[in-house]
Amino acid sequence: MPWPSRKRDKGAVADKKEPDAKIAKTEEETSDQEEEEKSAKPPAGSSKSGWKNWKKAKESESGGEESKITYCHWLLKSEPESRLEKGVDVKFSVDDLKAQPNQTTCWDGVRNYQARNFLRAMKLGQQAFFYHSNCKEPGIVAIVKIVKEAYPDHTQFDQKDPHYDSTSRKENPKWSMVDVQFVRMTKRFIPLSELKAHHLAHKADGGPLKDMMLFTRQRLSIQPLTQEQFDFVLSLEEERPH
């Protein structure tokens, strides 16, 4: 029996509790062909060092050297509250993941080309934040890791699945998924509101979250993170919530 879908790409709504965020175009406003042309592998590039005390600590650890980095971590959105899509409940919380055999599941149902390409770029062992989305209080709740790299998403061929795609062929599947495994809960819940406050501060002074896709492409359910972004967010575990 297929796992509940984690798909939130087409027709998605902006996360609740984010009244100031600009509402991005829904993916369904862009044709599949346009998305295919615009989508690409996660871009490489360099980002500035961290921010305030975190910045000083990271510079001390690295001897002040900066290195070229790529997107090597991820943020995966999933809905912890019940929502029916074509009669199927797409709810999947971190507790649902922990209840799976070996605390492992496939991450299926992605139907956006850019998000699909991010899935295909994931490497074995890379870590991702498990993010509760489209709920009363969205935010990061856990860390997972990639335990199987991209392979064809079985739900695209299942006519009973809400994400069935009649245009996809088994000899050349359009959609992919990966397998993820629970690693641990974050030491505390890191809410969207807190991440947004850092994002706005970093936009002003060049910190690592200034270009975080959670705010620049918030509708994507699969989002890449640089090493600095991942490290900075992880450092928030040790801070008291504001």
Beta-strand content estimate:
25-35%
Number of strands: 9
What is the radius of gyration? 18 Å
Q: What is the CATH top level name of the domain at 73-189 and 216-227?
A: Alpha Beta
* Unreliable stretches: 17-50, 63-67
Structural class: alpha+beta
Mean pLDDT: 82
User: What is the helix content?
Assistant: 10-25%
Order of helix and strand elements from N to C terminus = HEHEEEHEHEEEHHEH
CATH-wise, what's the superfamily of the domain at 73-189 and 216-227?
ph1033 like domains
Key words describing this protein structure:
two-stranded antiparallel ribbon; 24% helix; seven-stranded mixed sheet; ph1033 like fold; alpha+beta; single chain; 242 residues; 9 strands; globular
Q: How would you describe this structure to a colleague?
A:
The chain is α+β, with helices and mostly antiparallel strands. The chain has helices at 32-38, 52-62, 94-98, 113-121, 192-205, 213-216, 227-235, and strands at residues 44-45, 69-78, 84-85, 88-89, 104-107, 127-132, 139-152, 176-191, 222-226. The protein has a domain at 73-189 and 216-227: Roll (ph1033 like fold). It is built from seven helices and nine strands; from the N terminus they run αβαβββαβαβββααβα. Strands 1, 2, 5, 6, 7, 8 and 9 form a seven-stranded mixed beta sheet that branches. It has a two-stranded antiparallel sheet with strand order 3-4. The model is unreliable at 17-50 and 63-67 (pLDDT under 50). This is Thymocyte nuclear protein 1. Keywords: Nucleus, Phosphoprotein. Its main location: nucleus.
